[in-house]
Amino acid sequence: MDARHSESLSNVHGTVNTEHRTGWRKIFAFLGPAYLVSVGYMDPGNWATDIAGGSAFGYRLIWVLLASNLIALLLQSLSARLGIVRGLDLAQASKNAYPRFVNFCLYILAQIAIIACDLAEIIGMAIGLNLLFDLPMIWGVLLTITDTVLLLFLMNKGMRKLEAFIVSMISVIGLAFLTEMFIVKPDVVEIAKGFIPNNLFKNDEVSHKMLYIAIGIIGATVMPHNLYLHSSLVQTRKINRTKEGIKASLKFNMFDTVIALNLAFLVNAAILILAAGAFFKNGYFEVAEIQDAYKLLENIFGKIAPVLFAVALIASGQSSTVTGTLAGQIIMEGHINLRIAPWMRRLLTRLLAILPAVFTILYFGENALSDLLILSQVVLSLQLGFAIIPLIHFTSDKTKMQGFAIGPLAKIAAWISAVLIVGLNVKLVIDQVNDWISGYPDARIEIYAIVVPLIVGVGVLLLYVFMRPLLFKLKERPARVPHGEATAIGDISPIVYNNIAITIDFSANDRDSIRHAIMQGGKDAAYTLIHVVETAAARYHETEVMDRETQSDVKNLDLYIDDLQRMGYNARGYIGYGIPAKAIAKIVNDEGIDFMVMGSHGHRVLKDLIFGTTVNTVRHMVNVPVLVVKPQAK
């Protein structure tokens, strides 16, 4: 394992114990990470591409789904291998191997991919709510911002609870489509023919459209953020770091990956087969919209099939949005060394994804959302090369992988997959630019001046990502960890505090605050008791106001001072006025305080969000050590 790096998803790192277990209990302990990954393979983006492919071309693109699943199995196994052997997620490994500017570019591209993925979840959830409850799409999109609360709840409950939630959502999706397969009764012979590959590269409009949808299917299936996610999630298992322990962990995680991703393939195949059997077979060749699929299912098969369809859609979007948040945290911490609160990270990603959805609804109407959904999956596919190429390099490095580097066959298969995906994307980009040039002749200057240089820049970055590990194998830099590096502590001499401030609010917490302050300074220090008057007049004037509350507070503060002085302590009191944090900080800075003790109200998350936390604000406004005393549970 690399010696210098911060733990990926540190709050759940190594929290699931797998040691001292045998048989099925051992296997069960490792099951979970791939199921979280697999929800990204059956999210609303997959639904859009599968429905579009099934309705337009029948069963002819099933082989693309199968090929995508095989590629996903290979790449996800490499991602798990990287996390288990090196104890690094893909973003951390990239941070070690590439310069800071390149990592910043990789972060931006990965963030765009996560926003594109989150956009798919937003649209899918909004469509599901619209279909079931007739909720307007704009309200459904805005309502999806509330799932931040769900994520906070699940993360606080631990990794196993989160995995159980995801598995329950997958079960809902699977059962819904299993039931719909019995309703639709697809043609088994035609399904078998769909596994035979057909030519996507003919120079005609049909092949061009088929290629576009095929790339969307690949982007929706082999998601770049899932590669980051899997390399981190496998580290939630506490394993024996010996060679035998790592080998066993690789084996059990392979079981997990194969089972979970094959279940995802069956769900995707079921969606495409449903679209082919219900729409293509009945002459509906342009069902690219999920809403149309719902309505047609109702017309053809009655009310049960569309209700199951909508329930599965909501379950899919809700489960996928949780894993997208985790991937965003991994990418931000890994690539650019930035660690922020998960709820803030989630809210930021969701807001960035909501904006294009709201803009599309307001300016192009609700019917344009399905096109936006498919476009989001193509964007995901375009990002794949920047995740796959470094992953293959890292897992092929015999020195870093300590005897667990991938073999020649796996390496060849991985590079073929990378070349195939990058090649398809290059063709798609060239075709799209040519379409823009021919379709918008008045915008040719803008296309040549802005779009083409941007594409060339991304191409150069991809070439650099590919070439650097080959040319500079011995120049991998140590990781820059968020918390810095430990240094020798050396000789520690005691610190003497001469002037200690204590914030007072005349609650039961004051006694504990004063006791902890006295423990720091004894009878040699001076104690400054601070209370802030927060009446409307005090907040407005921010100066002395002798209203009834102020007079009562002054009297109470004097009682504290008298008691301390009787016990032999040097104590004095100060009254502040207005905003508590601002008033406290002013007194501390003006009176030469060198240490302060503050009582915490012990609020839960919701109260802190509503009322704010004076402690945190003061902490950033003063330059002295702050001791926070939390009230003891009774």
TrEMBL record:
The residue ranges crossing the membrane are 27-42, 62-84, 104-131, 137-155, 162-184, 210-229, 250-280, 300-326, 347-366, 372-392, 404-425, 445-467
Transport is among the record's keywords: yes
What does the UniProt entry say about where the protein is found? Cell membrane; Membrane
Question: Which membrane topology term applies here?
Answer: Multi-pass membrane protein
Q: Where is the UspA domain?
A: 497-630
**Similarity comment text for this entry:** Belongs to the NRAMP family.
Q: What is this protein called?
A: Divalent metal cation transporter MntH
**Organism annotation:** Mucilaginibacter roseus
Q: Tell me the gene name.
A: mntH
